[in-house]
Amino acid sequence: MLGALDDRDVIEQVVDIGAHPVARPGPERDAIVARVRRELAADGCCVLAGFVRPGLRETLRAEGAAVAPRAHRDVDVVNVYNTDPDPTLPAGHPARRTMIRGNAFVARDLLGSDALVQHLYTSTALQEFVAACVGAPRVHVLADPLAGLTLNVVAPGRGHPWHFDTNEFTISVVTQEPEAGGVFEYCPGIRSRGDENLAEVAAVLDGRAEHLVRRATLRAGDLQIFAGRYALHRVTTVEGARERHSAILAYSARPGVVGSPARTRQLFGRLTPAHGGDPVRVDGLLD
Questions:
Q1: Between the CA of residue 10 and those of 4, 61, 124, 138, what are the distances in Å?
Q2: How far apart are CA 246 and CA 235, in angstroms?
Q3: pLDDT tens readout for residues 30-80
Q4: Cα–Cα dist 280/287, whole Å
Q5: Which of 57, 120, 230, 267 could make an S-S bridge to 221, C-beta 3.0–4.6 Å?
Q6: What is the Cα–Cα distance from 167 to 251, expressed in whole angstroms?
């Protein structure tokens, strides 16, 4: 749909520039960047509501819905750190608590090459905006053919349990809202580089720390910038008949980043030559 456009122009075609003038450097973009930085510093989360143009939100939803059945839907038993169980830890340690991760991921190589979200992800202007917001000189798309851009699928009756991210920031766009449930909940700054704050993390897992939990209302077309490495967060159980879909746009401060084989197989059920694995066939096609 947007394949003929230069990637620096894509953001002006996809984003509601009237509400979010982020395409070009200047005072208006500087004001939005300053707002994002303030909210990240105070809360670890910023939502730019209605980021995608209203006329393109249905396109975004339909493209996601078309590939959602191809998500890798392996239900995992996980802890908040996405690490293997360690029986040497004390019984009350958060790493000893296990939960069911019921969300699923569609890998980037299964998304259409001309999909709207592919153009948004690779837009030079969006990368420059994100870098300015997170205080980085530059951000890069991942070299990982599976994990750089994914569709997170949460089916009715499922959720994404409490966890910490391995990356500093996550950029996401909701593409399809559920009928009910599927609420994004988070505890900003509950841990730090020098303090895991195990007591409060355990209290959240036990449901004893409601005062630490904040909630973000996310609608289709919203852009969320979230500092997830030190913020415990989850998506609550989706209710009703409609899945919750969100596109995850993963960037890195350095080029050439590829996920580990173990984590890649966990999320997508397969490896590619980029991960040191053999090519695999998906629906009869060599990917």
A1: 10, 18, 9, 19
A2: 11
A3: 999 999 999 999 999 999 999 999 999 999 999 999 999 999 988 788 899
A4: 6
A5: 57
A6: 9
